[in-house]
Input
Amino acid sequence: MNKITRVVFTDIGKVTTEHNETELPPLKAHEVRIAPAFFGICGSDLHVLAGGHPFAKPPLVPGHEIAAVVTEIGADVDRVSVGDHVVVDPIMACMECRACKAGRFNLCEPPQVAGFRAAGFARSSHVVPARNCHVAPQSLPMNVLAFAEPAACARHCVNRLPKSALEEVLVIGAGTIGLSIVQALRIMGAGVITVVEPDAHKRELAVKFGALRALAPGELGADERFTGVIDVVAAQATINEACTRVLAGGVVVCMGVPNGPREIPLPSMQRFERDLLNSGMYIPEDFDEVIAWLADGRFDTRDLVTDVFPIDQADKAFQRAKEPSSIKVLIQFDA
Output
């Protein structure tokens, strides 16, 4: 028997840490066993905890952002080894559908994502497919590696923009993902970056990370337009702003997760060939790229991780993550 520690949403709004003795399940040939070191709290986890997620409801084990150590490998595994430090792609793809066969695992339907329809990673021991593991240099601190998942979201989003749209980019929203997108835009060669964000501290960080300027809502000039716009909020007001701020022939990417249907100003979008794209999670190459960014310091997490809590204070960690001043809250498993 082994002692397993896990975070559980026992009910709407209730978080607890459980310690149980359990027998570890045997590995299949293509699987690995991992021991998470850190996991990050995402806005979508808070959505689940509040009971507002469309298909994930308490009680469940959350967690889809982790840095972990490989502790055991299956008989056919050759891409990772025991002792490797890894970030784990939380998409548990079927590998059989059209999207999976094209390598676009983020489009597998219905989506099986850890912490939602699939078992969450917020436990001290877990079994995952070896193909989901992306190995990082052991010199990369685990608390930095834990930021790879939101960084991968950002890299995937920016990669959706054609090169022509990177000349002048507007980012609406500068929370964890918005600030990550600013860094990804800088790393991936964007020209002028403008950010709209209500929080003054986050505006300061946006400029530090590469934006030319960061403005409060309503401060953009009436005639300002951009070759590309990324909406990280996906409210009705922000999607309207995005679609009306993009130049003719430009591109809007919706990165935020809407909580319902949205209207778009289709007449002007159609007439002036303004394209509306969407970005949903990531593909494997996004993880490999951002691990390199984190390892060589191009992507800076120092001002993004606002708090680290021990696993036994998971309830306090989730309370802190709800506060507007937090950016990324990490939970650390026992060292």
Notes: The radius of gyration is 20 Å. The mean pLDDT is 96.
